[in-house]
Amino acid sequence: MKILALIGSPRKGSNTDTVVDQILDGSKTKGHTSEKLYLYDYEISPCMDCRNCKKGDLICTIKDDMQKIYPKMEEADLIIFGTPIYFYGATGKMKLLIERMRPFIANGKLKGKKGIVLAPSEEGPKACGLLVKMFQMSFEYLGIEFAGKILPKAYERGEIKQNQKELKRAYEIGIGL
C-alpha cells in the first residue's frame, strides 16, 4: 500500500507531524511505503471557481504547486489528512488543498482510495466534530472511504510526546493498514 500524508501544520515536528510519523512507522511493519508533504512548503492558490476542472481534461488549470500534489494523491492508496484545529476547523493551507480537490469530483481519480483524518487540538475530540463531518462529507463526495480518525488532545509544542497512549494508538493504526 502506498500512503500519502498531507501535513497541514505550519510547523515541522509539530504534534500533527509526530502522530503522522507514528502511523507511518506502524505501516512500515507491513511493508507499506509512504511520503509526507508539508503543505506550508507549497504554494497553493484558492479555487477561482472557473469550472475548467469540470470540462475537457477534467484538471485544474491554476498553475501552482497543486500540480505537483495532484499526481501524488492519484498514486496513493490511502491519504492521511493531518491538521491541527484552528478555530474548530482545518488550517488555511489544508482548507486551500480541500478546495482545490474539485477536479477529482469530475475525473473520479480518488474513488476507492481510503482517507484518515488526524486533528490534534487543545480540547481533544470535542473540538473536532465540525472538521470530522466536513472530511466525511468531502470523502463521500469524492468516493474516498473514511478509514478512521485520530483526535488527540495536544496543543503546546511537543505536548503529544507526553501522551504515549495516543502515540501507541497511532502506531497500531499504522500496523492495521
Characteristic terms for this protein:
single chain, 177 residues, alpha/beta, Rossmann fold, 5-stranded parallel sheet, 6 helices, 5 strands
Large-scale geometry: globular
Number of strands: 5
| Mean pLDDT over the residues | 96
* CATH fold-level topology: Rossmann fold
Q: What percentage of residues falls in helices of 4 or more residues?
A: 25-40%
Q: Distance N terminus to C terminus?
A: 8 Å
Runs in which pLDDT lies below 50 for 5 or more consecutive residues are none
Describe the structure.
- 36% of the residues lie in helices and 16% in strands.
- The chain has a five-stranded parallel β-sheet with strand order 2-1-3-4-5, sandwiched between helices.
- The chain is of the alpha/beta class.
- The model has no long low-confidence stretch (mean pLDDT 96).
- The chain starts with a strand and ends with a helix.
- The chain has one domain: Rossmann fold, CATH 3.40.50.360.
- Helix 1 runs parallel beside helix 6.
- The radius of gyration is 16 Å and the shape is globular.
- It contains six helices and five strands.
A few lines on this structure:
This protein has 177 residues and is an alpha/beta fold. The chain has 6 helices and 5 strands.
SSE map:
Blueprint lengths: L1 E6 L7 H14 L4 E6 L27 H10 L2 E5 L9 H8 L3 H5 L6 E5 L10 H14 L2 E6 L13 H12 L2
Parallel strand pairs: 1-2, 1-3, 3-4, 4-5
